[in-house]
Fold:
Amino acid sequence: MKLKKWAAFVCTAFIAATLLTGCGNSVSTKVETVSKSAHPVALTLDANITALHMTNIVPKLSGKLVSTPLAVGQEVKSGDVVVQVDSTPYQQSVSQAEAELVAATSAAAASAPVYSAPAQSGGGGDSGQRAKLDVWYQMGAISKVEYNQMMSQAAPAQSAPAQTYSAPAVDSAKVAQLQQAVQSARDMMGNATIYSPMDGRVTAVADNPSVAVAGNVLATIQQMTPLVATFAVPEMYVEALQTAKQGGTLKVSVIAASGESEVGELTYLATAKDPSTGSYTAKITFNNAKNLFVPGEFYHVRISTPQEVSQITVPKTAIKTKDSGDFVYIVNDSGLADAKSVLTGDEEDGRVVVLDGLKEGDKVIEDPPDSLEIGMKVRS
Structure:
């Protein structure tokens, strides 16, 4: 019985060992030791596209919209009315403020003295001035408020000999306060209409785009051209790109899903490395003349220059792909098969540039057989 238990234990240990070493098998294949060699820079990288300019539509007053609600994807032009809030309540506020102002100035105008010019003066005087004000008011040249103020302040051309009248003093402070109230009400009503400040496309709207809420974003408009492509540049290419830009030999373009492209300009290249990625942030500004690109989406950017950089390349056959990305099989220090994730660049003459994941001295399996498993003994 003890013998059987010992045999079972040995068998189990053997199975575990074979699983950890590729089932105890070995494979014979070609292995290449990684080294660097100088090649012209030719990079195709992923980039996020954003608008160079964007604006949020934020109403200054609340209310239902009487205009058609904005919708995602809608194109707008600079100066277009994009939001029209129901101004009825605000119109009532204006009317009320104006009525209070008219009432305040009318009291003084109604009590203004009427002077009769002496016969020898040849007529005119204050009555002539009042007559002119009447004509101007009837013509619409002056408002009711202005008419009342001017009538109350009109002075006689010559004092009447028999009697004088004293007009009630105008409460200037109250009138000024009411005038300010009228202006504030008019300004508030003016905020009921919002115009687009630029040509662009609506890229986001509020959950209820039919109602404006003061201070809350109702919609976002993004400029569709020019656009900006933001991407990460591996450290080993930064110096070459800076030199090429200064020398005018740098070529950049942004590639749409259709394969069409737009030429751009490298407008930003960080001088410090992003510690979270180990790369340098760069930006390309380009015109979206053909309307090929949409802000918020990812596209490829192509950067090239004759400027040479020492780069790692491996045979195309060494690159394998899985859900998490590209990888290669390597031979570790114990002579066993292992795998490393890699960031790949362009391909030329059957070789692929490895931007990240390998270092000089690594041993890469050139053309891994289908039977290869991690942990297998590798013979080269």
Remarks:
- The longest strand covers residues 298-315.
- Residues 273 and 295 are 25 Å apart (CA to CA).
- The radius of gyration is 41 Å.
- The domain at 2-39+311-379 is CATH 2.40.420.20 (conserved putative lor/sdh protein from methanococcus maripaludis s2 fold).
